[in-house]
Amino acid sequence: MTFGGMPRVALIDDYEDKAEYLKNLFFEIYIKDIMESNSIRNDKSVLEDLLNIVSSSVGSLTNPLKLSRTFKSVKKVSVSPATLERYLECFADSFLMERAKRYDIRGKKHIESPMKYYYIILVTSD
Fold this sequence. Notes:
Blueprint lengths: L6 H5 L3 H23 L6 H12 L5 E2 L1 H12 L5 H13 L3 E8 L4 E11 L7
Antiparallel strand pairs: 1-3, 2-3
Helix pairs in contact: 4-5
């Protein structure tokens, strides 16, 4: 239950090795696929960091400008808000995360930014 249903994990004895295997599998499948599908080059660490930042604040308002400032101050990496917005769009397009638009009751319209992002859990029945 702790490690999901990946068959290879059952063959690994050590807890840390199981966790490392799943982490590598996740990044190999999702990050590599997102990079290839969207012609993103040389930004693997930015994608991974963005994914970690967003996942640590699931359901919070997410603003590309604030994320850009976080990258600049914490990671010492300059990434434009437009690039981060594109990467968030890539996460949504890959069905990794879902974007939740805010709704302005008074103006009766969707507010474009900031948005909230949630992980998508796919459930299938056999």
